[in-house]
Records
---
Amino acid sequence: MGAARRGREGDDGGRGPCGERYGRGTAGGVVLTASERPRGAAAEGDERVGAFWRELGLPGLIDVHTHFMPERVMAKVWAYFDAAGPLVGREWPITYRYEEKDRLAVLRGFGVRAFTSMIYPHKAGMARWLNGWAADFAARTPDCLRTATFFPEDGAAAYVRDELAGGARIFKAHVQVGGYDPADERLDEVWGLIEDAGVPVVTHCGSGPAPGKHTGPEPIARVLARHPRLRLVVAHLGMPEYTDFLDLAERYEHVHLDTTMTFTDFAERTAPFPRQERGRLAGLGDRILFGSDFPNIPYGYAHALESLTRLELGDDWLRGVCHGNAARLLGR
């Protein structure tokens, strides 16, 4: 796990870190064969990703939970994982630790047709700057949905209004890292603006991998009570409070859940999904979205997909989760 390499912003094509040229195809943008991958880039099972969605008859994948950030922010995130910080608490190797252009090539090579740049501030004064970076990233990366974020601070409603006017397609709210109450009165107008715009907001509000002061179902339930039309996407299926967040999804028709890291061997060791709740996953099948946490995952991308198959909820369910539901929600 070496230090992050410096990449050229805006350069998303062509060659890997060792100079190998990527091939181009039509289904997923850049298609990486075994011989064309950056040396050392192939994680276990990478070659199976394309077969997964082709066998389902899909045009590719939509991943609603991927992280692209300013270089120095991503480097700090990786350093935190390397140190197994207090919100991690266990060894967490970053599988896809490449410079930006190579991460984009790998993701496109998997056949991911649309993805996000999940950004999040941990203090006041940071969100506006992150939003500016994400807007620029989306402008030079057409398959990335323009992502925005916010923090409970003076002026939050104003910059969220600007982001919506500028074309933001999805928001990220990280209650755990931000350490804030999502029902903070300074965010009430923010949630209202996002609700009225019908733009989804991926929210890490569950208490995994470690609880925070404002994590768990109760704080975000207070937001939903005020904003019942909010297109809230509960990250990680609300891990580990799965049952409580399934309850919220059944109570509010616009609440969705993303699968990020859930059902994988890594997550099941510490926060197993209750087997008795699988039937509820089937019942909410049109509101569950595939998310990966790429590149910050301690296993190969294929494992996240194959973990969904192990649920044995059927091909129609998989087609909705891996493409159809997000396409409908995001207008893709």
---
Amino acid sequence: MTHALPKIAWIGLGIMGSPMSENLLKAGYDVTGHTLEQDKLDRLTAAGGTAAASVAEAVADADVIITMVPASPQVEAVAYGPGGILENARAGALLIDMSSITPQTSVDLAAAARDKGIRVLDAPVSGGEAGAIEAVLSIMVGGDQADFDEARPLFETLGRTVVRCGPHGSGQTVKAANQLIVAVNIQACAEAVVFLEKSGVDLAAALDVLAGGLAGSTVLTRKKDNFLRRDFRPGFRIDLHHKDMGIVTDAARTVGAALPVGAVVAQLVASLRAQGDGGLDHSALLRTVERLSGAGV
């Protein structure tokens, strides 16, 4: 590469993709983006990026292509086919998929890209919308060490904890474990909130002291205000956590790992979605506990 920083194509400018791409722009990267919503493209250009009318146009002369879309079907839709990344990116480009998808989809994508001379890393993230905005995401990466080393400066612009976890698909496996822990943790917090409130305790005081002890967690710190205010505007939607619980339960079954508590929480997430709350933040697991406890929601 003749220029100092690689040219970036960014596909998918949602709750996570928009602030992440803006952090790259602030760091001096040239970012060309494509997404389905015009207002998101306008936001990118307002931040100093370039809007592209298609995936093909966005990736044409990119050194690094980053995808941040909801799930495996969307990754496949933007990667494959005549208008997709693999047919339109140049040989030697590095494709970094930061979506949370099945490990197998990442493995298959890396194999298909290899035939086109395109290198791939799976690099899902944890930290939610706040982590994306503040550039403190945890980034778990699967793929070749050399490609990881090349991408590291870019990852360090987006996150704080950047770890290569192994070969293709490993990042997604660790992300699945992350989503298991987060869901179980939110559920435990939600049960505690309902228990505390029904007991007549000052909830804000209780959550403050719990956060300072062994029960404290990043989940409790980040979601405390959601619980206190019943503010369930999405940082991370129940719909997406439902998808992720499907990934982790399926992957665990494939490798022969039992997830008894995870399976119960997966059903509670599914229940919340079935009741029409799929568009709410995953802290809305509180609503299910309230319903089960006879509290009005």
---
Amino acid sequence: MQTQIRAAAIRGIDRLIDDLGGDGAALLGEFGVSPADLDSEHGLLPTVTAGRILRSATKRLNCPDLGLRLAACQDMSMLGPLALAVGNCDTVGEGLDCAARFLYVHNQGIRLSRAQDPEHYAGIGAVEYRMLHPDIPYEPQTIDAGLGQLHRSLLTMSGGYELLGVYLPHPPLTDESVYTGFFGAPVRFDTGRALLRVPTKLFTRPMSTPVNPELRRMVVEYLEAHYTDPREGVATSVRSAISRALGTVPARIDLVAEWLHLHPRTLQRRLAQEGTSFQEILDDVRRNAAHRLLTGTDMPFSQIASLVELAGQAALTRAARRWFGRTPTQVRRDARQAPTAPRVVRS
């Protein structure tokens, strides 16, 4: 199925092209798009078309930082009704979770999630921006624009925040100083991931502007009633939520249900309809996380137990015997002796 994106995602590209000496309306017209489509709150584009527009404009205008320039002239209004839901959450973290839940309304081809710090510093986390579909051609400009817009949205939500670093999956498209100037932080390239490294305290910071909980509730109900995520079931959303929470906040069903704006009993019923349960998903996420930490790090077993929310090293040993048929020591030793560590599906 062809994935779609709201035309507003590239709102302003026509004016930017004009400012750079091109003809924005003419270039859009080559792809069957008009400037009015970008200003509409209901216009949709195939995701590949949006990427092709950026690629074509970049080449014709010889403007390698086009994605960053586009992000600089946009704001959260490009998200349409989702901006109202996000902007009226109580904290920045809740706003990110709301955006992650409903981002398919804006763009069916990407995912947004909190993540662990890739450099493993205490008190540091990350916000990751991921492309989902392998059949969508990779366009570096769309990643630059998307991550740039995410950065600007976090600035708006927080009133200003400390960005510790930026990861981009591709080489620099222009001088690296252009990237550091835009983000105001060190940028690493060719990392295979697109993310922003931030202090975890950012997630608990109140929104910088007054919020209206009733408006948020109304918008969320509207999004739930009028849009269906074409990509995943409830179980996948629960797995993603648990993965984000594990080791930072208790991965309890009542908390996960709240993040997904569901009643716990409703969440249990929907998981049962998909042939699973909250406890089964939690156990699987713990298993994958424990295997990754045992085989890919030198962390003490007591610390690993804490990160996967087990009550001490003895509990980790019991769980490892059940999951892998071996003790934690044996799992780590076998992984180091093997020519290639077993591949584990990431939760």
---
Amino acid sequence: MNTVKIGTRGSKLALSQTQQITDQLSAVGGFEAEIVPIKTDGDVLTGPLSQMGGTGVFAVELRTAVLDSRVDVAVHSLKDLPTAAVPGLTLAAVPQRVDARDALCARDGLKLAELPHGATVGTGSPRRAAQLLAARPDLAIVDIRGNVDTRLARVPGLPGNPVTDLVPGKTGDLDAVVLAAAGLTRIGRLDTVTEFLSSEVMLPAPGQGALALECRTADASLTGILGQSLAAVDHQDTRLAITAERALLARLEAGCSAPVGAFAYRKGSMLYLEAVVASLDGARTMRVKKATDGLSNVGATLLGIELAEELLADGAGDLADLAGSAQ
């Protein structure tokens, strides 16, 4: 088999997580693999993510690169992957999920409850902002973009940050930022975390902490080495969980500019799904939880749809502008 080309975004985080997956695939399949960085609109454009077209800005170029055979596999952060399928592509593997929680990285070791009144907290996520404000209405949420290191640099004194002066909008100007624990783990910055936010405070984005490996549908066949290798790194419990979460998101017709959190997990013979929809200011929230014993992709999909239907019936569409953020 020729060298398998693995496409990914070019950020430090994307390259780190893709290297781990590439090593696994090549070890299983016995083939050479090459990582090919792909520049996406999300890496080039500036401004709030929700105003740039949402999650798709990170996925379109990678998917195109697979379809036109520049690469054979695309590695996505699952929370960046739109719920709509693309003809000719198959989600061939969902490796085992790592920590799905959000993490607070605050100055002086502070936890969320300990931040001073009116503290400035940076995030580019409406979901995180809404849930932060639901817990602490006094906080001042600051919209931030950039890679993990850039965002961490906004908080003075965090381990690993360069020693620098306060520069408004750039360095040392915030009391805290909220980031995905998975990303911090993958680039070795977990020592910056002052509190892992519990699901009672903040439900993660659907798919957070998980990766998606897409390939051309023809290459997903289990008769080929690549298809067999992808199947070998697929983790069934993770796939069930993200299937439920993404089915909920799709039924709500919600994208990244909607404050929707969801987390599913298998426990024994049951698959549980919990979801939250919030108003952008966090003043109103709806939270529901449901379980199924249907441990199949169909069962997980139905669980997500049923929970979304409950939310919609209770007025979730009025609570948040779901349709306006659909992907």
